[in-house]
Specification:
six-stranded mixed sheet; globular
Length: 261
C-alpha cells in the first residue's frame, strides 16, 4: 500500500481558500498513484479561529463529503480527509472523515482528547467512540493530534485489530520531537505502521512543525517531510508486521488483568 501525506499550510479562518488548496494538493498527490491520500487536522479552518468558529465550520461534514468524497471517486483513491471543524447537533466537533475509492464516507471520528492548554475544550465537544475501518482490505484506525499522548487509545484500537494507524495533526514545531517520539513509540509497541500527516505554517503565534512521516513496525521512518508544505509518500509492506508479530508476540504475552488505572 502506497500512502501519501499532504503536509498542508492552511489559512486560519478561511475555509473556501483551504478547500481549494486541499483539492489542488490532492490532485498533485494523485499523480504519484497512491492507494491512500492523507490530510492534516482541521484543515478547513486551521487550528483554530476562536471567533466565529461555528459559522466557519462544516455542517455534518456535508462540504467534505461533497468535495473530497467526489475527488476520491474521480481519482479512485482512498482519502483519509484529515479532520475538519464540524457542527452537528448544535455543537462543534473536530471530525475526521474517511473515503474509499468509490467516494463513500466509510467512517467518521470525533477527536476524543481535546487540547486544554490551547483551550480546545472551550470551543469543541469531545467525541465518544473509537474508529476502525478497512482500506483495500487493510484494518486501520485513526486518531487526531493530542490523542497520540494517550497510549491507551491506540492500544485499544490495536487489540481490536488494526495494522495501520493514521495520525492527523496540527503539532507545533517547538514540540516536534515529541511527535516524532510518540508516533515511533506507537508503531513499535503496537507492531504496526503509522502514517502521520501534520500541518505547517503559522496560525496566530504558533508555528506548526511539519515532519509528516510514515513509520514501519520496527520504528524505522520510511519517509519524513521537512517543515514546509509538501507531499511525501511511502510504500508499506504489511508482511513486515505479520513477521514481527509472529517473532515477538507481545499481544499473546499481555496481562490485562494487571493493568489498572
Amino acid at each position: 500500500m502506497k500512502i501519501s501525506c499532504v503536509q498542508m499550510d492552511m489559512a486560519l479562518g478561511k475555509p473556501e481558500e483551504n478547500f481549494k488548496l486541499a483539492e489542488k494538493l490532492i490532485l498533485q498527490a494523485a499523480e504519484g498513484k497512491p492507494d491512500v491520500i492523507v490530510l492534516p487536522e482541521t484543515w478547513n479552518v486551521g487550528f483554530f479561529p476562536k471567533e466565529h468558529l461555528a459559522e466557519l465550520s462544516d455542517r455534518d461534514c456535508i462540504a467534505v463529503k461533497e468535495r473530497i468524497g467526489t475527488l476520491a471517486k474521480k481519482l479512485q483513491t482512498n482519502i483519509v480527509a484529515g479532520s475538519v471543524a464540524n457542527v452537528k447537533d448544535g455543537k462543534v466537533y473536530n471530525t475526521a472523515c474517511i473515503f474509499d475509492r468509490s467516494g463513500s464516507c466509510i467512517a467518521q471520528y470525533d477527536k476524543t482528547h481535546l487540547f486544554t492548554p490551547m483551550g480546545e475544550h472551550h470551543s469543541f465537544t469531545p467525541g465518544d467512540h473509537l474508529c476502525r475501518f478497512q482500506l483495500d482490505g487493510i484494518s486501520c484506525g485513526i486518531i487526531i493530534c493530542y490523542d497520540i499522548r494517550f497510549p491507551e487509545l491506540t492500544r485499544s484500537l490495536t487489540v481490536q485489530g488494526i495494522d495501520l494507524l493514521f495520525v492527523v495533526s496540527q503539532w507545533p514545531g517547538v514540540r516536534i520531537g515529541h511527535l516524532r517520539a510518540l508516533t515511533t513509540a506507537r508503531a513499535i509497541e503496537n507492531q504496526m505502521f503509522v502514517a502521520c500527516c501534520n500541518s505547517c505554517g503559522t496560525a496566530i503565534t504558533t508555528k506548526y512543525g511539519g515532519a509528516s512521516a510514515v513509520i514501519d513496525p520496527w520504528g524505522e521512518t520510511l519517509v519524513l517531510a521537512g517543515s514546509e508544505q509538501e507531499i511525501v509518500s511511502a510504500e508499506c509492506d504489511f508482511g513486515v508486521a505479520d513477521g514481527i508479530r509472529k517473532s515477538i508476540n507481545v499481544f499473546a504475552d499481555r496481562r490485562p488483568e494487571l493493568y489498572q488505572y
